[in-house]
Amino acid sequence: MSFNVFNKRLTAKRLLITFLSLLVVFVVSLLIYGYDSMHDPEKVKARLYACGKFGDQHMLIDKQYLYFARVTYEGVNYWGKNIREEHNAKGCGDQIQSISLQVKWPEMTPSSEGFSLNSENKNDIKIALNQRSVWPDELGSKDFFNYMELLKRHLRKGMFSSGKEVSEAWIDETKKINSDLGLYEIDVESDEGVAKKVYWQEIKGKGVSLVIKCLYFKNGSTICTSSTHEPNYGLNTSYIDISFHSELLPHWQQLNQDAVQLIE
After folding, report:
1. Half-sphere exposure of 208 (CA within 13 A, CB side)
2. In which region does residue 139 sit, left (phi positive, over 0), alpha (psi from -120 to 50) or beta (all else)?
3. What percentage of the chain's residues is helix, strand, coil (to nearest 5)?
4. CB 226 within 8 A of CB 47
5. Strand partners for 37
6. How far apart are the C-alpha atoms of 218 and 56, rounded to whole Å?
7. Cα 100 to Cα 126: distance, rounded to the nearest angstrom
8. How far apart (Å, rounded) are the C-alpha atoms in residues 36 and 72?
9. Could you tell me where the beta strands, DSSP code E, fall in 134-237?
């Protein structure tokens, strides 16, 4: 009887020792993995940065700027079922389609909230760099892109520009210069109870170089979106869209300069 008791105690002791040994191995493995993840340069880089190629230029993007935003890659069907799998398969050698950065202006530091229509933080902006997939030969030099077609679309009646198409002759007859901004402007009729103003810059002999569309909602919320050409990034050039509150409209030139500087 005493022998059986001794045997059972010995078995239990062996099981306990085995369990503790496995636990120690598990804990040590976790510590080693954690240390490795914290100190391995490539793993640290992957955790802190997104990367890819924009044309022939390599880009390393601080993920703090990607809060509520992201990097999208060429060749990924972001409307498909395997978005995560396709996206995660991309790396630093793959072409980036677009980058959306959430920024606090004028510090140009990462924004933890991100641009929001109803936000009281009027200095939160969103900067989107988008790579063009093609550059038709009829457009000529890549140094300039004429935004006339985008301007005509924005000048259609309604918040979603669903009204009748406008002509360039009508634009010339209707536009007026805003001397404070140094831009042309037209107040657009809206049928959704939302006021819309469109501003733009013209380069003589070339066309429209910049377009800003601003929407003013009844609850006081506003959003302005500027679009400009960026010839120095991408295989077929790129364009920069900046979303901001109308309070920052007087600073449109500085916003564009700071956006390009941040990207560079």
Report:
1. 21
2. alpha
3. 35, 30, 35
4. no
5. none
6. 46
7. 7
8. 29
9. 176-178, 183-188, 195-203, 207-216, 222-230
Burial grade of 38 (CB within 10 A; 0-12, 13-18, 19 or more): exposed
b/e map 101-139, b = 16+ CB within 10 Å:
bbbbbeebebbeebbeeeeeeeebbbbbbbbbeebeeee
Rounded Cα distance between 182 and 52, Å, is: 37
Concatenated DSSP letters of 42-98: HHHHHHHEEEEEETTEEEEEEGGGGTT--EEETT--TTSTTHHHHHHT--TTSBEEE
pTM across the whole model: 0.82
Indicate the SS3 state at residue 179.
coil
- pLDDT tens track for 82-132: 888 999 899 899 999 999 999 999 999 999 887 889 888 999 999 999 999
- The tokens of 5 are what? 């008791």
